[in-house]
Records
---
Amino acid sequence: MDTGTQKFGGIKRISKYTEENGDEDLHRFVNMVNKEVFLSSKRPTDIQIWLDLVDDCNEYYEELCIYHISLMDDRAAASAFFSLVDALDELQKLAPTPYKKVIKNLAARESYSSWQLKINRRKGNKCLRRTMKYRYDKGYDDYKDDIEGLLLMLRNSRQHSGKWIEEHFVSVVCQHFPKLLADLQKAMFEIRYLPNLYLKHSMGFLKEKGVSPQNRSD
């Protein structure tokens, strides 16, 4: 059927869909959000990352846009992040090449080098400072002042702070590293790990059907 000749009510015709039209729709959507939703307020960093990803109109990142960590509630985002960090730890042992690719990707960002200075200063997050102090008090080697050390410290903060960190983890991390959650998710997506997280379940899309990660068939 030639949709280019269809007429409905006062609409003269429906234009045929093209990738160019689709891209223009995405640009309009992002522009609308920026102007209407955040007209008089500063856009949160994580939402801005997502909007930039959508505005880029890169089909490769379509799945990442749909299940982006910035769209999750705080508990789901924390759970996804910890799962990614645990998976990265396994990759270091079982698949060094993709592990090094992720680390190289993250290490290229200056905000994750010399990260201890941000936490150890007077206004540094108390939860993370306690995690670092615990290691020092136990006589363990200090965390490395690079992205690997940062991820290890954040993973350990979950063990030291219990359920509290699950509820407030996103705020804790974003205080000093507002792009880290999204950066790690994107880096893991680029080595095609993201589907292993069952993000549809994490974001609640499958709850109505009673589908769990254990009984999924896809």
Note: The CA atoms of residues 198 and 213 lie 6 Å apart.
---
Amino acid sequence: TEYFYGEDENVITQLELENKLVNGNFNAKTVVMIQCVGSRDDERPYCSRVCCSEAVKNALKIKEINPRANVFVLYRDMRTYGFRESYYSKARQMGVIFIRYEKDKKPQVVKQNGVLKVSLVDPILNGPVTINTSLTPVPVSIRHTSSGIL
């Protein structure tokens, strides 16, 4: 499974995160959201178009619940369409950290002594960054059927 989803209870989907936020079951101190998981690659080169907006929406909710939470969004290209672009700006103002990664340098997740660590190369720093995370939401990519219908 990608990024330990289904193997570690702290790797969840954005929808599962949203349910935790709505139901008051959220208590993570550091959240690292990894975007473009299962899409925008050789097998599925398209963008799902909703994942970035979902991540930004959930990041805003986390910061509303706990302004001191560390929230990182790792992305290839931030694609928030229309009015959702203002949510992206608001998330940055609230302290959400956005880090871009290259297609050939995807984030890596390792588990050391029960702790999830997300590593990637920050193109601005031009060097490696490692973040210990208590929760890692990943998007569920939208896939078309053989008939071409989503």
Note: The chain has one domain: 2-138.
---
Amino acid sequence: MFPGRKRMTSGAMGDISEAKVMKLGPQEGKESGPKVFRSKAKILKSGAPVDSYVHIVVVGSSKCGKTCLIKSFKGEPWPPTSNYRSTPCLADVRFLGGSKKSMIWDMDARPDFLEARREAYEETDIILLCFDIRGESTLSEQTEQWLQEIKTHRPHTPIMLVGLKQETRYDRSLQGQITEVEANQLKIDRGLEAYMEASAFHRSGVVEIFEAAVGITVGNGLCNKVMWRDRGFRLPLAFTGGFL
């Protein structure tokens, strides 16, 4: 268990593959997908204790595909129609016959947003470090600055390495793609929790990444959300629907 974490009594990691994203039922004129809250202020309000939710931060170089990963997970139509906003969203992920509320932060990669990332890192349970497998930049170039930043601001938090744009593995016109062997070697060398790949375009492997993140987090024990609890914030007990 990582320092500063509280072991949950029901925290056996179990079979990650059992986890399923809870989606809205079909509704006329609405997209089906996890219910999402656009505002941190609206996420953190009276309701369920904040200690019970999984805090997931998603980082990676600009245009690596992390925003499309989250939009695909949320069930948004392809191609994405909304502009990028570095805001958290809230979704229920089924786990071991129940569900875990998960707050997912899509972080802006620009240097000017370091302070915002530092805030997001506080009391996060797991970090998804994303990269573009097409290899326009090397794996080291895409990940080293993030590994150093995480080591500085959140050294004991588990990290999942996530390769994106998996559909390009079948494009024979591309050369220099980052291989699974390279990525798995980085995972071993840097002590990362897991390596997974996904295609937001094909919606392949997307849900499984967030299932795995929740499973790893619950297995390690959730962080005590002291910062949020001391400020009097709570999560909603139930979703009220749609985008806010």
Note: The mean pLDDT is 77.
